[in-house]
Design brief:
- Helix 4 packs across helix 18 (about 505-515) and helix 8 crosses helix 14 (about 425-430).
- The chain folds into five domains: about 1-170, BRCT domain (Rossmann fold, 3-Layer(aba) Sandwich); about 215-295, Rossmann fold; about 310-405, Rossmann fold; about 505-525 and about 545-685, BRCT domain (Rossmann fold); about 695-800, Rossmann fold (3-Layer(aba) Sandwich).
- It is α/β, with parallel strands linked by helices.
- About 35% of the residues lie in helices and about 10% in strands.
- This is BRCT domain-containing protein.
- One of its GO terms (cellular component) is Cul8-RING ubiquitin ligase complex.
- It holds the Pfam family RTT107_BRCT_5.
- InterPro entries: BRCT_dom, BRCT_dom_sf, CellCycle_DNARepair_Reg.
Length: about 800
């Protein structure tokens, strides 16, 4: 590789780690098969792209430098090892696949070449597949469903169930959960404290490089015995390192908790901070790895994650190291993990939705999510919304245990919550540490970019606002929690991080991906079977929910970069009649909707179907739709759809305050005031129904899922009533810890109607409630709708049946 680069006038520097750190001055590209090397963060700060060796080969083949982002070894770009082409697919599907693969770090080819790794096709009859078989190319022929599921999850899953000619997903469902097939990323990182497991470090051979010329500090909070400390000292010393008691002299700081002066000082000065499990992993492998790569290699928070304490979580379909890892991750958040599922459980984390636990959870109203919800909540240090479809997606022939452990910690999030710039304790520690000019010079030699100014640095403005500072809107291009701050253009490390996080992202690829993949049907619109319930049927009249959600532009991060000064309005739209012109047909409707969304994006208005992200709610009048009622719980500004018409007509962003929805007739009809509802919603903070158990009959008008979404948005628990014996009301102990309402757990509700088929269910419901020492309330569904719309608990008597 080096000889080939020199042959084409490239200058080559060989990294001789661990003898010395890489000097990045003058370097334009770093070639590595992995992102997991000590200088990766320094490269990221300096905007130096890290690429895989194939970047060199492909650039030489095309006689030009290719986009380095498509060749990044960073696992966040999970398609980086995919070179795909499509065969005999509609143009819309081909564009969607191209956009998705490019946005996630892959390479898309318009024709079959020797570099292609995947052919996306619907059958083996296409010309590209025939040529690949004839030339015996090592490619995988997969259905478009594989790309769709990868993009929905944000992870690369196994191709086997999707491979032609004998793909499993086209066969009738067996009802059995698939087994995990791949080795996970959590081997050696399933527990944050190996001392509790009574493990001792045992290197397979003499350590050669991982501790060479490194100083290691073992914190006092590890709670290890003098005997074990002596063993660790001996291994580090024998490996060429030293053990120190001074954090200023240490290269590695080993501790148990994310707290204390030494932890903050080590973190602020960019030393490697990990826990004892990480130290054992280094000893076992004799290879350096970042302690942030595997979440349980990093110290835990003593008080857990806000919102998780009191949750009772069970696991299903995860086995081995993956299950142990998730159990310990649940404990690290402060929640309780149970082996069995009971009605007291608040969440079920499952690798597949085919199990007895999943069936019971659906009946009991327990939230069913995959492990990505837990991992990303922990990584972002904020409970993620379970309404995000990524957390409730379960590919039918894939066990998600295969992709456990691929989520990494974000150092910007850690800094924000655990060692911020303005932390007084860290400043005091820095002032009290013995330093001299020699130490400072040594530090600069080891971390040349920590003090070196990057000239002519241009930092884009954030240009984003959030409705609620406690619930910031995040994206791949913006540091979480910082969207309201315009970073300076100085040489501070924070500015470099923010600039790097934005400039490394390619706006063009993301825009293309969002343009195509947001339409109904995903990237396999042309390739679904007629029996697929999600397939669009031409000629069918579209429902308003489909129309409202079509081509949503919620994550159009590219526009955020291009329109720096545009305010961020995240808009939920319900009941907007002008989306559809049935006389022109559905395909023209889709084109019209896309054009409208594009024009709104250009004006700084981002249309979304996720009510939790909405800053504004638009409707022609007060309507009792799921979108409208659910969105009210998040206290958006309610405006008239005339605002949309006016913005489109004048092609400029108008003041939404001038278009507040005024509907006195419906306010009188439903006994509410939109302005007061919004004020109450802000005060309620999505906890209006906190601690309340609400059951629905199966045939309730509007559907169970509609009422479940409304209840969940307001902090309650919604369950399906099937009139089964032995059912009990779930304990509200998890909810009661966060509630101050003394009678919140006394009432239990059943939403139903006057139908004769439902009246037979009422008596057993009363028995169940009274047996659980609760007061049964059998109500018309209007009670919930009007309670959610007014954002106050309505008296039940007028609604009782």
């Amino acid at each position: 590789m080096a000889a080939e680069l020199r042959l084409h006038d490239g200058l080559v520097v060989i990294d001789n780690y661990p003898e010395a750190r890489l000097d990045l001055r003058g370097i334009t590209h770093v070639i590595s098969t992995t992102y997991d090397f000590p200088d990766y963060n320094s490269c990221f700060d300096a905007l130096i792209p890290v690429v895989r060796p194939t970047w060199v080969q492909h650039s030489l083949a095309r006689d030009r430098l290719l986009n380095p982002r498509q060749y990044s070894p960073d696992p966040r770009y999970f398609m980086s090892d995919v070179v795909a082409c499509v065969a005999d697919l509609p143009q819309g599907d081909a564009d969607a696949i191209a956009g998705g693969i490019l946005a996630m770090g892959g390479v898309f080819s318009t024709k079959l070449t020797s570099q292609v790794t995947h052919i996306i096709a619907l059958s083996m009859d296409s010309e590209a597949v025939t040529v690949a078989e004839k030339k015996k190319l090592p490619v995988k022929v997969v259905l478009p469903h594989w790309v769709d599921d990868c993009l929905k999850l944000g992870r690369k899953i196994g191709e086997d169930p999707y491979m032609l000619p004998d793909s499993e997903i086209t066969k009738p469902a067996t009802g059995r959960a698939p087994n995990a097939r791949r080795k996970t990323e959590v081997d050696g990182a399933a527990h944050p404290d190996p001392v509790q497991l009574k493990q001792n470090p045992s290197p397979p051979r003499k350590l050669q490089k991982v501790f060479k010329k490194k100083a290691v500090m073992l914190a006092s909070d590890l709670g290890i015995s003098p005997y074990l400390r002596g063993i660790l000292d001996g291994l580090i010393t024998a490996g060429g390192g030293t053990v120190t008691d001074s954090v200023s002299q240490a290269d590695m700081y080993i501790c148990k908790y994310r707290e204390g002066r030494d932890y903050k000082t080590a973190s602020r000065t960019r030393k490697d901070v990990g826990n004892l499990s990480w130290l054992y992993f280094l000893i076992q492998t004799d290879e350096w790895t970042s302690p942030m790569r595997r979440m349980l290699h990093y110290p835990v928070a003593k008080d857990g994650l806000l919102g998780f304490r009191g949750l009772v979580i069970s696991l299903s379909n995860y086995t081995g190291e993956a299950r142990a890892y998730l159990e310990n991750l649940i404990a690290a958040t402060g929640a309780t993990c149970t082996k069995t599922l009971k009605q007291d459980n608040t969440h079920l984390i499952t690798a597949h939705d085919h199990s007895e636990k999943c069936a019971a959870a659906k009946e009991w109203g327990v939230h069913i999510v995959n492990h990505l919800w837990l991992e990303e909540s922990y990584a972002r240090w904020k409970m993620q919304s379970i309404t995000d479809s990524r957390y409730t997606h379960f590919p039918q022939r894939t066990n998600l245990g295969d992709v456990v452990g691929y989520t990494q910690l974000d150092r910007n999030v850690l800094e924000q919550y655990f060692f911020p710039d303005n932390d007084a304790e860290t400043t005091d520690a820095a002032d009290n540490e013995p330093t001299n000019q020699a130490d400072q010079n040594a530090g600069e030699a080891k971390h040349p970019l920590s003090t070196r100014k990057i000239k002519n640095e241009q930092t884009p403005k954030a240009g984003l606002t959030s409705r609620n500072p406690q619930t910031p809107v995040t994206s791949r291009l913006v540091v979480p929690g910082k969207e309201n701050i315009t970073p300076s253009t100085t040489n501070s490390r924070k500015s470099k991080e923010i600039a790097a996080s934005r400039l490394h992202a390619q706006a063009e690829d993301i825009l293309l991906f969002n343009k195509e993949s947001k339409r109904k049907g995903g990237v396999i619109y042309g390739g679904r079977r007629k029996s697929d319930p999600d397939r669009i049927q031409l000629g069918r009249k579209r429902s308003m929910d489909e129309v409202d959600g079509a081509d949503e532009s919620d994550d159009s991060d590219a526009k955020k970069v291009k329109r720096e000064d545009a305010p961020s309005i995240r808009l939920v739209i319900s009941g907007y009649k002008k989306w559809v012109n049935n006389a022109k047909g559905e395909d023209r409707d889709k084109a019209r909707i896309f054009c409208i969304h594009k024009q709104l994006r250009n004006l700084g208005i981002f249309v979304t179907t996720d009510a939790s992200k909405a800053t504004h709610l638009a409707a022609p009048n007060i309507v009792r739709t799921q979108k409208f009622v659910t969105a009210l719980a998040y206290a958006p500004l309610v405006i008239s759809t005339d605002f949309i018409d006016a913005c489109l007509e004048k092609d400029e962003l108008l003041d939404p305050e001038q278009y507040k929805l005024r509907d006195k007739d419906n306010e009188k009809k439903f006994h509410l005031s939109l302005e007061k509802s919004r004020q109450r919603a802000k005060k309620n903070a999505n906890q209006l129904l906190q601690g309340r158990c609400i059951y629905c009959t199966e045939n309730i008008t509007g559907g169970f899922d509609t009422f479940k979404a409304i209840v969940a948005a307001n902090g309650g628990r919604c369950m399906l009533w099937k009139n089964r014996k032995g059912t009990t009301v779930p304990s509200g102990r998890a909810d009661s810890e966060a509630s101050t309402d003394t009678d919140v757990n006394n009432d239990v509700y059943l939403l139903t109607d006057h139908g004769k088929e439902n009246q037979g269910l009422w008596s057993r419901f009363r028995e169940m409630a009274e047996g659980s020492r609760k007061i049964p309330k059998i109500l018309a569904s209007d009670w919930l709708l009007e309670t959610a719309m007014s954002q106050e608990i309505r008296p039940t008597r007028p609604y009782e049946l």
